[in-house]
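Morning!

This is the sequence you dropped in the shared folder:
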Amino acid sequence: MPFLFSSAALLPDGWARDVLLEWDDDGSIVGVSANAASNGHPRAAGPVLPGMPNVHSHAFQRAMAGLAERRGHPTDDFWTWRETMYELVRRLSPEDIGAIAAQLYIEMLKHGYTSVAEFHYLHRDAEGKPYADIATLAEPIVQAADVAGIALTFLPVMYRFGGFGGRALKGGQRRFESDPASIMALLAEMQSRHGDRRNFRLGVAPHSVRAVDAMLLTEVVARALEFDPQLPIHMHLSEQTREVSECRETHGVAPFAWVSDLVEVDSHWCFIHSTHITPKEAEALAGRGAVVGLCPTTEANLGDGIFDFSGWFARGAAWAIGGDSHVSVSPFDELRALEASQRLRLRVRNVASSESAPDVAANLWNGAAQGGSQAIGQPVGSIAAGQRADLVVLDGANVDFEGLAASDALSVAMFGGNSNRVRDVFLAGRKVIDDGRHAREQEAEREFRAALRRLRPGSP
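The structure's back. Tokens below.
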């Protein structure tokens, strides 16, 4: 059986020294021994962390990261940013989607993400017509994950309306059109093609309260749970104040109340953003055992607002992080932005901590990893027996780690500078990043460049 010895590893209850890890041929951890001898087994090049799940990805948006930063309206916000995104959506081909996703997933691995939940709402062609093969735009995502070697939870997204009151889809939104029947057909097709694939999971995602109505929501959830009672269910929630106010105007209640009155919310649910939920809603959501999926760099980029993470953390409720629009591909960036937003909001330091758990960086990494495991429905997120051997090894030779204990090294990696301190990454016990490199990164970059030349007007 494969082994890895580390002088320090971040276990579920904190840092441990001289840890010997053992996993079986399927890549599942079967032994975690602290204060052990190396006994000649391979040694990690630095502190070892559990691999991080990315619970919210729109892979294609990696192609527009940083390209919506010019003023187009006196009050630029999410709603004006969307128009730039729709312009990209109109031009995407299946080949482009695959090339962008492969590049992105390799970048994610190199920065410490080992699994990703792809919130996939591109279903139709550029004119809004269905493809003969319902999986035409889904298949490139699975193949990209295979090229990268990242674990995938694939979430077909139901998106039926362009806004409250049953507004029609228009422009780029027409590529999103779907209903319970088409979502279930796609789930069945992906299960047929990839259900026996290791490190692959299916879920479902009703997009948001503005994109579905009561009948569609209840039907897709009921049919999804018939398909698999343990299916992860993800949904955008209360991302913008306008969405909350329009929900109140249309339905008489805020988004979470509307959803939870219609369907049973439990620990299989992950609500993305949840930025503007009230304390009462937060209490109800936490009581259902659901996860909040926070995307701090995207939420900041879009000017969405600041989630009350300090209150959520104090409840001990489940949470996770996602890259969303991929203005960052690093979990370290997301966690730094999350903590920084709370410090600015509260004007105090070290928010994600308590008297009994003072180590902010360890709290953030373990919290996001464990909540991420719940959200994506995969056995990851902690270094423990029975979990998959998804491991992130920091570069112990990094100059900024000189003379530091492992806990301080993680703090420096998260809060000091913006260089990538990840050296090696394991997925199910197989090394997919070796000394900062991926075996297929040059091939993926060539295809990504070709896709960008096709997509960007005026490119040579």
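Headline: The two ends are 52 Å apart (CA to CA).

More detail when I'm at my desk.
O.
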